[in-house]
Amino acid sequence: MRDLKTIVLGTDFSQSANAALTYAIGIAKKFDARLVIVVVYDAVHLMIEMLPELGPVPEEFPSNFPTREKLQKALDGLAAQAAAEGVQTETQIKDGRAYVSLIQVARDMKAGMLIMGTRGLKGVDHFLIGSTAEQVVRMSPCPVLTVRVPVNGRSPKEIPDIKHILVPVDFSMFSQEAVECVVPTAKRFNAEVYLVHAIEQYVYVSSLHGFTTRSAADENERKRASDQMTKLIQMFHDNGIQATSRICEGLPDAEIMKAAQESHADLIVMGTHGRTGLQHTLVGSVAEKVVRRSSCPVMTVKSPTFSFAAP
User: pTM, whole model, 2 decimals?
Assistant: First the structure.
């Protein structure tokens, strides 16, 4: 991430993908990185077929759109927007499952970041369509930036400026990876960093008193968290980055959403365990919940311990 030379942008020409383009251009300019814009051909066909069952077909998906010629023309239009901002750009059309193709391109190009839009679907819609963004977050070999519209209540058309970065930490190797990615990003954008650590409450059974809510935030726990936070704050200060911290109690995803609002976050950067299958079912992912709910872009950073193998 410190040497970000190539960014892969996955697009389906939706509003969220167009918003992701503005972030891709902005970050590419700050890092002087090349931008590779990718559309997965079969995924567009699948979306066209499924959209009528889920609601009206949006304007950006006209019925005669998914031909390679028109896809290439649309890609050329996106590339022209990036080129107008001085960003070196290339385009690719890939076949296959969207998340597999995007991850493979990122791996082949040795990308330092993968950017894409997400619709933030929930309930039945999320079950039917699934989420390419969540699959990419789970399996990408590089940090993933997801953008959902509206972004903080607006639909961005101009290149965004990132001034406030929220970094949730649990002091694991996963959040350490995220912290290391934040440093160059904060320095390039001259952004202030806000660290948040949520200590969960849980319920246990007492033979004398029945069910009791016990706070994990006893004095020892809070002191350990405070000591870790102090070290992180000092690390950011040593790198010339203004940083503050907060320790709170509650469900991590809820506290992260609250902190994002209070800090006016332009970007959330957090680690994710990157597990799949049974491990993912048992453990779940706070990062994926945040990606689904956040109104500001979320950059997820996966530990290299969990690598992707194409199915």
Answer: 0.82
